[in-house]
Write a structure and sequence with these properties.
Residues 5-65 form the HTH tetR-type domain. It comes from Pseudoalteromonas luteoviolacea NCIMB 1942. The chain is mainly α and 198 residues long. It has two domains: 3-63, Homeodomain-like (Arc Repressor Mutant, subunit A), CATH 1.10.10; 79-195, Tetracycline Repressor, domain 2 (Orthogonal Bundle). It has ten helices and no strands. The longest helix has 22 residues, at 149-170. It starts with a helix and ends with a helix. The model has no long low-confidence stretch (mean pLDDT 90).
């Protein structure tokens, strides 16, 4: 690794630590330079703004998140069990410490920065990397009847996020019976009640 790449990584790692402890708004570029043990000029040589640094931090964090395998629709396998596999993998991601850490780093900034929110919204992670393609294939084999695949994919994931991810992010508890397995099963059952071909 070149010295320049090494310094860039030092800056990203220092910023990740500081952003997750203090938030991006409360972290100065001076503090990032000091923590990374580089000059402020070096920080700005790599990142022309705090926003650019935050993008790099989030991208770097995403590379270290275990996103699971890409699941491909299999016509001779039960659609319910395939959707359960997808939901279980997504639930693991949404409840993982690395993913929650990214959310905490990005959350306040996203509220104040519509461009960053749009950028991250277009970054496909977890099952959103393949779910639309999966649904198109399931649609083609008449296992489901979905007119708007993008909407249906988001509907599936957002239900999981609502009951698995957001309570953890905000630190509030759900009813005891609403454990992860319950939410996964209800998500799949609700989805199939709407879209499965009888």
């Amino acid at each position: 690794m070149k010295l320049s790449e090494k310094k860039r990584l030092q800056i990203i790692q220092a910023a990740e630590q500081l952003f997750s402890e203090n938030g991006a708004q409360q972290t100065s570029m001076d503090l990032v330079a000091q923590t990374a043990e580089v000059s402020k000029r070096t920080v700005y040589n790599h990142f022309d703004s705090k926003e650019a640094l935050l993008y790099a931090v989030i991208e770097n964090m995403l590379t270290h998140v275990e996103q699971g395998n890409t699941l491909v629709y299999t016509p001779d396998k039960c659609i319910r069990s395939q959707l359960l596999d997808i939901a279980k993998a997504e639930a693991l991601l949404l409840s993982s410490d690395p993913f929650l850490r990214i959310a905490r780093v990005a959350f306040l900034e996203l509220l104040q920065n519509p461009d960053m929110a749009a950028h991250l919204n277009n970054t496909k992670v977890g099952c959103m990397r393949y779910l639309e393609e999966f649904l198109v294939a399931a649609n083609s084999s008449d296992a489901i009847n979905v007119e708007d695949v993008t909407f249906a994919a988001k509907q599936f994931v957002f239900q999981l996020k609502s009951f698995i991810f957001y309570p953890r992010l905000y630190g509030f508890a759900l009813e005891p019976y609403m454990d992860q397995e319950f939410v996964i099963n209800q998500t799949v059952e609700t989805f199939l009640a709407r879209y499965q071909v009888s």
